[in-house]
Amino acid sequence: MTAATEKTHGSPEAAKDPAAPVFAVRDLWKVFGPKADRIPGNKEYAALSGAELRERTGCTAAVRDVSFEVKRGEVFVVMGLSGSGKSTLVRTLTRLIEPTSGTIAIDGEDVLAMDKNRLRELRRRQTAMVFQNFGLLPHRSVLDNVAYGLEIQGMGKAERRAKALQIVEKVGLQGLEERRPTQLSGGQQQRVGLARALAVDPEVLLFDEPFSALDPLIRRDMQEEVVRLHREEGRTMVFITHDLSEALRLGDRIMLMRDGGVVQLGTPEEIVANPADEYVRDFVRDVPREQVISVRRAMRPADSDEAESGAALAPDTLVVDAIEAVARSGEHCRVVENGRTLGVVDHSRLLAVVAGIDEGPDTTDTEGKEVAAV
Ligand SMILES: Nc1ncnc2c1ncn2[C@@H]1O[C@H](COP(=O)(O)OP(=O)(O)OP(=O)(O)O)[C@@H](O)[C@H]1O
Ligand SMILES: [Mg+2]
Question: Which terminus of the chain is less hemmed in, N or C, by CB atoms within 10 Å?
Answer without folding.
Answer: C
